[in-house]
Amino acid sequence: MTEGLIRSSKSATREALSFCRQCMGMCGTVVSLDAADRVVSVRGDREDPSTLGYACFKGLNAAEAHNSSVRFLKPMKRMPDGELVPVDREQVLDEIAERIAAIVEADGPEAVAGYRGGGAFFTSSSVMMVPAFLSALGSPKAYSSVTIDQSAKVVALGRIGIWPPGRTPMSRADVYLLVGANPLVSVSANGFDTRNPTKRLRAARERGMKLIVIDPRETETAHFADIHIQPLPGEDCAVLAGLLHLILEAGWQDHSFCDRYADDVAALQRAVASFTPAEVARRADVPEATLREAARLFAHDCHSGPAAGSTGADMAPGGNLAEHLIECLNIVCGRYLREGAEIEHPGVIHARQPIRAEVIPAPRWWEQGAKSRVGGFGQLDGELPSGTLPDEILEPGAGRVRCLISHGGNPASAIPGIEKVEQAFSELDLLVAIEPFPTMTTALADYVLPPTLQYERADLPIWLYESLVSPEPYTRYTPAIASPPEGAEVVDDHVYFSGLAKRLGLSLELLGEPLPVGTPLSTEEILARTASQAPIPFEEIKKAERGIFLPGEKQYVEPGAPDSPHRFSLLPQDVAEELRSVAAMLDQPPLGTEPYRYRMAVRRLRDANNSAGLALPSIKARVPFNPGFMNPEDMAQEGISEGDEIEIASGHGAIRVRAESDPSLRRGVVSVTHGFGALPRAEAKYEDVGVSTNWLTSTSDASRESINAMPWMTGFPVSIERVEGASDAIAVTS
Ligand SMILES: Nc1nc2c(c(=O)[nH]1)N[C@H]1C(S)=C(S)[C@@H](COP(=O)(O)OP(=O)(O)OC[C@H]3O[C@@H](n4cnc5c(=O)[nH]c(N)nc54)[C@H](O)[C@@H]3O)O[C@H]1N2
Ligand SMILES: Nc1nc2c(c(=O)[nH]1)N[C@H]1C(S)=C(S)[C@@H](COP(=O)(O)OP(=O)(O)OC[C@H]3O[C@@H](n4cnc5c(=O)[nH]c(N)nc54)[C@H](O)[C@@H]3O)O[C@H]1N2
Ligand code: SF4
Ligand SMILES: [Mo]
Q1: This model's pTM is above 0.70
Q2: Which ligand is nearest to the CA of 221?
């Protein structure tokens, strides 16, 4: 038997329907269980009405995770000798509560912070526990993976304004423009139909939908594109401004929409005047003709369908501006649902409300409310930017963060600037991780609290972003179908929060209603509470074993107030300044000064999900470490052969990886996947765990966006050098 695998190798005795909660896919699955209710295997459910049988390698592999021998099955406490040892749950909660109380007593509630990662967002009964716990405590120090991901979208809406009916859905699009997204692999992209993405894309193509992809790599998604613009990473602002230039110059905008809702189109046109096709083509290193074709296809030949960005656009220098320009394309071309149009997803778990065709003027949320202590960054969706967390811990003074509760995330791996993050987390007085597996974060934690895994808990698909999971009003319920491994003392995540709240005398709230303190709600009851605004009773959602497309009256976009004075803000002052600084770079050579002759590109791997599951044997067999993908011609030019050790350096740090040829990647780029590696102190071997790309990134002001403090993770300059006389094994630190 493979190491780390399978405590129970019994054969299956029954099957149960459920859905996978490892990513936004929420794929319908058939789970085989043994007589002791342990997961034996998983397959995609061909009869699933939403995801139509799709399931990826990661999802099919869930039995391995559930039964893994490295999984934490008991609450763990770090002893003075550095070892984590199992401890009784009540004792652990007593100790943690006591330590939190002492920190609050000494330094106030803002010394306590919380971080939510993917594991928290995909656990519907517990996703609101970090914010509930912190607000009961009175601490504004809420963080999550959202602000090291695509919070540029929140910034864009905050600066440009909101159109409540949203963009034209993919089902009614005659064109779709994707910027830095590969939904066929990531099963994720704002508005793209990811319920079995390849099948959905094929169907859309068959009915005539055109696809434009902007990506330095000829991705699995770009393979289907009518037009693929393949710029250097980090040049999306130039490319998008160039498209706007062409569209406005040709007069292809939606004049009536612009006249009614955007009175600064002329100002935008002036601001993009210098982004001529020739200048943009040179700077982004793309053919001028391709830019012209893309502008024509999007704005002239097609009349509906949105532009949408993802991590490739949002993680680059200028990510906030890139998302702003994407929204400008949608506004200028009128790619929004209009009065009278049917709303495909009027809300399933979220309360339904009338949706009007009118602009909510730029709310600039971050300008009010709590600010980060260091840097003065404001809140986005009630959270402070994760790019400010290391400084909040390290910077002495009143309000310094001394305790961090990490829920279903791996912030030590995920937050840029790995050395500083390691130092910051080491200086915490208390680090608690609600986490099923050993990670970089648990390696630094004082306590690890083990949760149930997906098939062991009742759930709903991620409801916070429900319209991103399904373009139709579909939801489903799953009961807990599997039992945790023998002897496990795991509980659903919310139990830890209610246990701590009770000891600290805090009253937690869920959706504005207090949760009982004495006898905490069961998972089932929390889910029912969460779904209390659904248009049908929770009991009915529960009865539909493959989920339910909510019946009932269709909802249409209602007319806006005829005299509404509100308009979009296409060119607020800060955007104008950012655009000017991009314009000022247009005549500079794109690949900067020696030795930084390449650009870094983020990319996700099909077989791994960020840092999760990388230690599982079957995933390790496929992706033991993260290679440095390069175009074969660049490799030849640099004298690098397949498998050679190369050093990639940024202004912040260096990593050594094995080079792997990737002809789908354009020249001038090296692409390395994040989530791998170990802490600097672990001195692990690259061949064993890969290396963190967060050696190359930083949370310093010079390497992050304004407003959301989003550290740059793609599109920044790097040098590449073949390591001469390399030893067989690559050390992770360099
Ligand atoms: N350099 C660089 N850095 C990046 C990125 C990048 O592209 N480049 N990407 C960024 C992005 S987009 C993101 S989202 C973040 C990722 O940020 P995080 O979400 O913090 O990191 P993950 O590695 O996804 O960690 C998820 C954790 O959840 C745990 N988990 C799995 N199942 C469960 C469960 O059922 N319950 C609980 N409680 N936990 C569970 C997993 O074991 C894993 O440790 O990283 C960011 N950091
Ligand atoms: N298999 C798998 N699925 C995942 C994840 C995973 O790790 N593995 N992670 C999940 C998470 S946390 C997230 S946030 C989503 C993200 O989902 P996506 O945003 O779709 O992520 P990727 O698949 O990496 O696609 C990003 C694309 O951007 C391109 N790119 C890189 N730099 C630039 C640039 O500067 N400009 C442009 N235009 N393109 C650029 C890359 O070549 C890549 O094709 O995926 C989720 N799904
Ligand atoms: S795509 Fe996501 S939800 Fe679907 S099986 Fe894979 S990991 Fe699970
Ligand atoms: Mo993400």
Answers
A1: yes
A2: 2
